[in-house]
Design a protein that fits this description.
Layout lengths: L10 E6 L13 H10 L4 E4 L2 E2 L19 E8 L12 E4 L14 H10 L3 E4 L9 H6 L5 E6 L11 H9 L5 E5 L15 E6 L4 H10 L2 E4 L4 E7 L2 E16 L5 E14 L7 E7 L5 E3 L3 E2 L2
Parallel strand pairs: 1-2, 2-4, 3-4, 6-7, 7-8
Antiparallel strand pairs: 1-9, 4-5, 5-6, 9-10, 10-15, 11-12, 12-13, 12-14, 14-15, 14-16
């Protein structure tokens, strides 16, 4: 069963895993980009500029921009040809070494992702809905730890949510986690940043501790609500959260268990309908913000 993070040692640290600066196609410098998140109360950010020849393959070193109570993870958004519908893969890799090599001639997206994972990175499928990834595309990306199930930038084109593809992959046996991110570029036409994040459970804000927790799935994602506790006991998932109007239990079977009300802060939902598969919790608040657990595997 998935090791739910809520009773693990340490605390939750708020961070963004997909961010761009003017080292690629963002509007702000790395320092300005990170300052925006730090001032908004974030604990960490991964700057993931586009690792492309047109930008001279930037893997931006943000170590000098760390400060007490705020840290960074080194990473990039990797690209290689091609997917079924698009000319290029979009792969988030967080925790890359600074000497990570550019793509080799003829290196495919799945091969590049495998090399990133072997180098120590947490690997995510970036905005699969916006990229029109097919199930075949996604299954070939076998080095991925996680799927970017909500991308705030892609939401402006109504392609921000990628849970459907994630559920298809989970039902086919892939053990993937799920994260939300801004994909912030700070361009004038873009939506506001700081609207989608992860809460990572770790004993410290040290980058290695955060990276280990991400790989282990010790996090949840949110665009608003807080999850205080989620536990599975005797066939029931019990959820404790900030005030919500809806708590959903969905997963590897059609349908859902739903509790609705005003200012819900605790409820329990049965898992029986999901058999030996998996389920996941979604909490929705009065403003439409949502929070998601990672999949909870029942065998």
């Amino acid at each position: 069963m998935t090791d739910l993070p809520f009773d693990r040692p340490g605390r939750f640290w708020r961070g963004n895993l997909h961010t761009h600066s003017n080292e690629s196609d963002g509007a702000l410098s790395p320092a300005e980009t990170l300052r925006h998140y730090r001032d908004a109360g974030y604990d960490f950010v991964a700057l993931t500029d586009h690792f492309r020849a047109e930008f001279n393959f930037p893997l931006t070193d943000t170590t000098a921009l760390r400060s007490p109570g705020f840290t960074t993870l080194l990473g990039a958004e990797l690209h290689a040809p091609r997917t079924e519908a698009g000319p290029s893969w979009h792969i988030v890799a967080v925790g890359l070494p600074l000497d990570f090599r550019p793509p080799e001639p003829g290196e495919s997206g799945p091969e590049l992702a495998r090399r990133a994972r072997a180098a120590g990175a947490f690997v995510g499928m970036a905005h699969p809905s916006a990229s029109l990834l097919t199930a075949a595309d996604a299954e070939s990306l076998d080095a991925a730890h996680s799927v970017e199930v909500y991308n705030a930038l892609a939401d402006r084109e109504n392609r921000g949510d990628s849970w459907h593809l994630t559920d298809v992959l989970l039902n086919r046996g892939r053990r993937l986690t799920a994260y939300a991110a801004d994909d912030a570029h700070f361009q004038p036409q873009d939506p506001a940043p700081c609207v989608a994040w992860v809460q990572v459970r770790a004993e410290s804000l040290e980058p290695g501790a955060l990276l280990s927790a991400l790989k282990a799935g010790h996090f949840y994602s949110s665009t608003g609500p807080e999850l205080h506790d989620v536990r599975l006991d005797d066939g029931l998932v019990t959820v404790c959260c900030s005030p919500a109007r809806k708590v959903l239990l969905t997963g590897g079977a059609p349908g859902a268990q739903v509790v609705q009300g005003s200012s819900l802060t605790e409820c329990s939902l049965p898992v029986e309908m999901f058999g030996d598969g998996y389920c996941r919790v979604t909490v929705e608040d009065a403003d439409g913000g949502r929070a998601w657990t990672n999949p909870i595997h029942l065998t």
